[in-house]
Amino acid sequence: MKPYDIVAALEERVAEYAGAPCAVAVDSCTNALLLALRLHFMATTEREVILPAYTYVGVAYSVLNAGGYCGFTDYRWSGAYRLGKTNIIDSARRFRRGMYEPGTMYCLSAHWGKHLKIGRGGFILLDNVDDASMLRIMRFDGRTAGIPPARDMFHLPGQHCYMLPEEAARGLTLMNYMPDDNQDLPWDEYPDLRKFDIFGRCYCG
To answer: Which of 74, 97, 157, 192 has the most crowded Cβ, counting Cβ within 10 A?
Structure first.
């Protein structure tokens, strides 16, 4: 089995569990959100993304690093929430069978402190096969897996955030013991991101 076949096997397993047609594996939920946002911004000129004021700082940085800016609300979330008017869902604290919402890019965490304890890892669940193909190129420095760089074509943004085969192999083992109905992880303590100037209403593209 080739290294990227192991990653593909885990993608298929996670997609089946969550009830999604496709899954794209990356190295963290933060980078799953970053890639999903970059793909979203390729199709719209709207750059503001509304977030809960109390959420993980990596979500807000993903908005900025993807070329957007943050707006904030006092919404207190649990488990999963949608990023403003986008079709992107941050589900870093939810992982249960059949949870996928059709039409979304549903981002998961496989951090050691989450349900699927790979150590480092994340996933984008989606039902658009073409978008999944683009995300797999974007996660791999804009490259096509299995094609040497000298013979590849580069036409998409590239990010160095693919999942390693050994991490995927661990994920496959862990999925053998994954319950169907995990409870959402409890609320963590987050700062009010509105007090940090870097997340103010400034376009960072």
So the answer is: 157
